[in-house]
Specification:
Blueprint lengths: L1 E6 L5 H11 L6 H11 L1 E4 L2 H12 L5 E6 L1
Antiparallel strand pairs: 1-2, 1-3
C-alpha cells in the first residue's frame, strides 16, 4: 500500500519550511517527506505512520489536506 498527502490549497512555503525545521527529526525517514512536500506540494510513502505524522504536523498549523491510500 502507498499513502499520499495532497493539499486542498497551496500552503505558504515558509510555513512548510518551519514545520520541517521543527519536526523533521521526530521520526526517522520523514525529512524526505517534508522535502517532497516543499518541492512537489505532495508526498507519498509506503509507511502509513510517517504519512499520518506528517499530516498531523500540518494539521497543527491548520493546513487542510487530503490523505489518499493507493493500492
Amino acid at each position: 500500500m502507498n499513502y499520499k498527502i495532497l493539499f486542498k490549497e497551496k500552503p505558504d512555503k515558509d510555513i512548510l519550511l518551519e514545520i520541517r525545521r521543527r519536526h523533521s527529526n521526530d521520526i526517522e525517514g520523514i525529512d524526505e517527506l517534508y522535502e517532497q512536500l516543499i518541492t512537489n506540494r505532495t508526498c507519498d510513502s509506503e509507511i502509513a505512520s510517517r504519512i499520518y505524522y506528517v499530516a498531523y504536523t500540518m494539521a497543527l498549523e491548520n493546513i487542510e489536506l487530503i490523505l489518499v491510500r493507493m493500492n
